[in-house]
From TrEMBL:
The gene is pseF. It comes from Alkalicaulis satelles. InterPro entries: CMP-NeuNAc_synthase, Cytidylyl_trans, Nucleotide-diphossugar_trans, PseF. Its EC number is 2.7.7.81. It holds the Pfam family CTP_transf_3. One of its GO terms (molecular function) is N-acylneuraminate cytidylyltransferase activity. This is Pseudaminic acid cytidylyltransferase. Keywords: Nucleotidyltransferase, Transferase.
Length: 231
């Protein structure tokens, strides 16, 4: 069995107390906790947080909080890989070792147990260090342009102006729902996006970046439309 770790700071600049704010009737962090528990993939599910209130809510919904994250790993510039490495190092110092650990994001209410089970199979394949959620870009990135200081526009790659959209290579981005990793990759802080990583492509309807109140409102509408708020 593997270990699940949810990094969850108490602070949030754009949406105050984002991890605790109610999303479709539950605290935001309660949704990834539920998916992790339903998946049956994990021996333990812990939340790494600097916030006692957030820790209490996490425990109410079935997670563990065996330690409080130190301040130097709790600002908005701390890399997630350092938070996961710290959690593994803390547990190993207490005599507990896991071959695989999965980082689940506290602000990923669309995370599904089935995605975790499918990705758990991938991380155990030879030569794989990481497995992560991904999504396709909805429009060819080769046709992107920038707005100039004068208010005009210029393409990042002018050579693609006459290329048909269907002839351009598909591009993908991190869906920010989960990262599986093998123990040594986490502890050595190896980069995720390498040939030794495997993406799990999710449908666009379940990939949402929730950074503003408007994002939040639209995400709740889609969440309910998909029936994901059912008991």
């Amino acid at each position: 069995m593997a270990l699940a770790i949810i990094p969850a700071r108490g602070g949030s600049k754009r949406i105050p107390r984002k991890n605790l704010a109610p999303f479709c009737g539950r605290p935001m962090i309660a949704w990834p906790i539920r998916a992790a528990l339903e998946s049956g993939c994990f021996e333990r599910l812990i939340v790494s947080t600097d916030d006692p209130d957030l820790a209490a809510v996490a425990r109410e919904h079935g997670a563990e909080t065996p330690f409080i994250r130190p301040d130097h790993l709790s600002d908005d510039r701390t890399p997630v890989i350092d938070v996961i490495g710290h959690a593994l190092e803390t547990l190993e110092a207490a005599g507990e070792r896991h071959a695989h650990a999965c980082c689940l994001f506290a602000t990923a209410p669309f995370l599904q147990a089935g995605d975790l089970r499918a990705s758990a199979d991938l991380i155990r394949k030879p030569g794989v260090e990481y497995v992560f959620s991904a999504a396709r870009y909805g429009f060819p990135i080769q046709r992107a342009f920038r707005v100039t200081r004068e208010g005009g526009c210029e393409m990042f790659d002018p050579g693609q102006f006459h290329t048909r959209s269907q002839d351009l290579e598909e591009a993908y981005h991190d869906a920010a729902q989960f990262y599986w990793g093998v123990r040594d990759a986490w502890l050595e802080r190896r980069p995720v996006f390498t040939p030794r990583a495997r993406p799990v492509v999710l449908p666009a309807s379940r990939v949402w970046d929730i950074d503003t109140p408007e994002d939040w409102a639209r995400a709740e509408l889609m969440f309910r439309a998909l029936g994901l708020d059912a008991p």
